[in-house]
Amino acid sequence: MIKKNCLTCNKGFEVIFYRKDRAKYCGNKCKQPWNKGIKRPDISKLLKGRIMSKEWRNKISISAKKRVGSLASNWKGGKITKNCQLCYQLFKVDPRRDKTAKFCSIKCLNIDRSKRFSADHPTSIETKVYEELKKRGFLFEQQKFINGKFIVDAYIPVLNLVIECDGDYWHSLERVQKRDKAKNAYLIKCGFNLLRLTETEINKDVKIALKDIN
User: Fold this and answer.
1) pTM to 2 decimals?
2) Domain range enclosing 152
3) Residue 74 confidence (pLDDT)
4) Which residues neighbour 96 within 8 Å (Cβ) at sequence distance 6 or greater?
5) Is the residue at 7 inside a domain?
6) Is residue 42 part of a domain?
């Protein structure tokens, strides 16, 4: 470690030797330009098209200038249009949320979270089906989102085939059975081929359960 003095408060601090040339401040507070007597900018005024003062333009950090500049360039007194990353529908958002806004609604956000969780934590029967499909050399998608309506366990694009792995307990519930019927009707109406496999069939012999897939 090497000892240095902070350029703002002149306090001593220690830094690793290979950062001796880059380390100039003891912390983030001393690093911020408005803690050196410079007035903090009003970003809302900058977004409305007001010109940045010369003092601030000369002394503000490069990263802050880029951030303010990008916000000001996107601001036109209204909202900008983006595509939802899940359903690909257009939605309007404040330009200040351009980088963070990814979904058109809370529903799409929750579906994306459940989709990513299901993809990272597949059930035991889903894992068996995925492994068997890989052995047979099929290219397939896990947890495929169909037309902004339903998520299916596996989808084989070449065969236009949807595979659903149904747990015995969960899919024996009445409300789940109603949802499955609606899901089946929608997939068939959209032209998808559908194969539903029960937990018993998969655990007994997954190869026999998938024998009709060629």
Assistant:
1) 0.52
2) 122-209
3) 46
4) 47, 71, 75
5) yes
6) no
